[in-house]
Design goal:
Layout lengths: L1 H23 L24 H5 L2 E3 L9 E3 L10 E4 L2 E4 L14 E3 L6 E9 L4 E8 L12 E6 L37 E8 L2 E6 L2 E7 L3 H8 L16 E4 L6 E10 L2
Antiparallel strand pairs: 1-13, 2-5, 3-4, 4-13, 5-12, 6-9, 6-13, 7-8, 7-12, 9-10, 10-11
Length: 263
Amino acid sequence: MKKVFFAIAILAALVLGSTVTMNSCKPAKKADTTKVDTIAVVADNTLTPKEKADGWMLLFDGKTTTGWRGYNKPSFPDSGWVVENGTLRCLASGNGEAGGKGGDIIYDKKFKDFDLTLEWKISTGGNSGVFYLGEEIPNEPIWKSALEDQVLDDAVHPDAKLGVNGDRKAGSLYDLIPSKTPEKPAGEWNKVEIMVYQGTVVTKLNDGPGVEFHLGTPDWEKMIKASKFKDFKEFGKIRAGFIGLQDHGNDVWFKNIKIKELQ
């Protein structure tokens, strides 16, 4: 009887082994390659067909300074600013604000109601700004009329610790309203959006909320009277003005500068 059981056990093992071998010889199921995720890559300083259809225009083509000139000047600065690797770069002077070689630049057209987007990258310890709704006042800097979306290395530049409640940090309405979203560190690209419509201004930093305010309202006037801008009669009064980029004497890069005028 023991021999019978032993023979049955051997037979079962042989059958099981052949089954495993047969299964292992079956070809592996091919991966489904019919579904491939694709991500559209949009080149810098270009417009997509949809953007063109929606009325967007480029303010910087990535190759030339067409459309830009020095503030209170007839042409683009001979030094201090360069087009470099698809960016509009302000060159560091080594002396900070006092040593800017090119000065602030503006796009040679006034805008009233608009949606503006751009990207900026700041050097370590750097400072700059994006001006909007500015006016050219002879012998006066643009910041005495224009609003400024702050560009700053918050981690190093001392301006980040000045002002009130962070209203000099990146993305803030400079010296007035702090941004609700932090910047990306020096050397990384930050995206800015500034929307102006019938006196309402809404900004974003890296797709997060920046600031929101309403020009000409009692709250706005009260805020200005309590600020460093109180003695500048044009500040915050311009309804159709220039867009500018600040030369603060530090390396800063800009690209993908696009605008859509709002009707």
